[in-house]
Amino acid sequence: MARLILFNKPYGVLSQFTDRGSPTVRSTLSDYIAVKGVYPAGRLDRDSEGLLLLCNDGRLQAHIADPRFKLPKSYLVQVEGEPEEAQLDRLRKGVLLKDGMSLPADVECIAEPPLWPRDPPIRQRKSIPDRWLRMTIREGRNRQVRRMTAAVGLPTLRLVRWSIGDWTVAGIAPGQFAEIAV
User: Fold this and answer.
1) Of 20, 19, 15, nearest to 38 (Cα)?
2) Is 45 a catalytic residue?
3) pTM attached to this predicted model
4) What is the pLDDT of residue 108?
């Protein structure tokens, strides 16, 4: 039976177990997960937070990470500015990025979610509003959500991956994980 770990990756942690070649000491998965034989199924940028799946089964790992399977990944995204419907529609239709057109995203404005505090906190500017979006994509390009929101004029301030497929980070504190059998 395959093992699957649902990890709530904190801000600033690398999505790998070692950090070779860096002149500074950076936090890695090995600082939080002492389970042998599991590997990340996909990545989550160092400056992003939330759900990272790790497993010990290559077939399951490929199903989670491979864009061919178009597994939905949902994010809570704090953006700078007040989104206009035209900007949201562009995200819903797909955005032209340097590496080609993105697939359409499901996106909606939401109230500020009850998330854990981020360390360091997001800078707040009194003259520039911010807004939260729930955004679901079915690809996994490098920094895709950040690049998509920037392309429509809404820079991302905070990015939290909330779910991948049916798996969610709900109820898992930052730096903690839950293990399930699949």
Assistant:
1) 15
2) yes
3) 0.94
4) 98
